[in-house]
């Protein structure tokens, strides 16, 4: 059997662009205040106002989602320097649903500094784990024990490919405007 990989990019949506710029400006603003308003000999000040904001940006940057590599048995979320592997065993359904993440609550994770990643809950799909950059391109991967949302650049092609690779029944497209 031939082993094939299919790459899908992860374009940034307007919401992620705006949230990333605003977050960076706020964090750099903290650093500027920390440097220019620094009291003498205040280690805690340096930690809170300079180190923590810079470390937050550096760590978030490392977790940037650069794309997705789809194989027959796994989906790899490409980051800076490594990939997160998602085993596709037990995948029941793959569906493009641009409305899946509306009215979402973040439970734990990154809500908009270079990506949307972590654990969330929405009224429509319940609890899910996200690896996203443009929520209008949401592809919902439903397993028996979990739901994962990814946002490939071409969600319809992604759904069709994963459906074909995993032998899933015809996927549906939620009624709404596409990307």
TrEMBL record:
<feature type="transmembrane region" description="Helical">
    <location>
        <begin position="47"/>
        <end position="69"/>
    </location>
</feature>
<dbReference type="Pfam" id="PF10882">
    <property type="entry name" value="bPH_5"/>
</dbReference>
<keyword id="KW-0472">Membrane</keyword>
<feature type="domain" description="Bacterial Pleckstrin homology">
    <location>
        <begin position="67"/>
        <end position="163"/>
    </location>
</feature>
<protein>
    <recommendedName>
        <fullName>Bacterial Pleckstrin homology domain-containing protein</fullName>
    </recommendedName>
</protein>
<dbReference type="InterPro" id="IPR027783">
    <property type="entry name" value="Bacterial_PH-related"/>
</dbReference>
<keyword id="KW-1133">Transmembrane helix</keyword>
<keyword id="KW-0812">Transmembrane</keyword>
<feature type="transmembrane region" description="Helical">
    <location>
        <begin position="12"/>
        <end position="35"/>
    </location>
</feature>
């Amino acid at each position: 059997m031939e082993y094939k990989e299919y790459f899908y990019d992860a374009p940034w949506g307007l919401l992620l662009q705006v949230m990333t710029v605003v977050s960076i400006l706020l964090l750099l603003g903290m650093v500027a205040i920390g440097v220019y308003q620094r009291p003498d000999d205040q280690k805690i000040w340096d930690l809170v106002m300079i180190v923590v904001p810079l470390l937050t940006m550096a760590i978030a940057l490392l977790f940037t989602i650069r794309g997705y590599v789809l194989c027959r048995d796994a989906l790899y979320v490409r980051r800076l320097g490594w990939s997160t592997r998602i085993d596709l065993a037990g995948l029941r359904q793959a569906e493009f649903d641009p409305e899946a993440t509306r009215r979402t609550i973040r439970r734990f994770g990154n809500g908009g500094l270079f990506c949307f990643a972590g654990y969330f809950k929405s009224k429509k799909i319940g609890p899910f784990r996200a690896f996203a950059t443009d929520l209008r391109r949401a592809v919902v991967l439903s397993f028996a024990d979990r739901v994962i949302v990814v946002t490939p650049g071409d969600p319809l092609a992604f759904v069709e490919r994963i459906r074909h690779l995993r032998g899933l029944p015809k996927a549906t497209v939620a009624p709404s405007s596409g990307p």
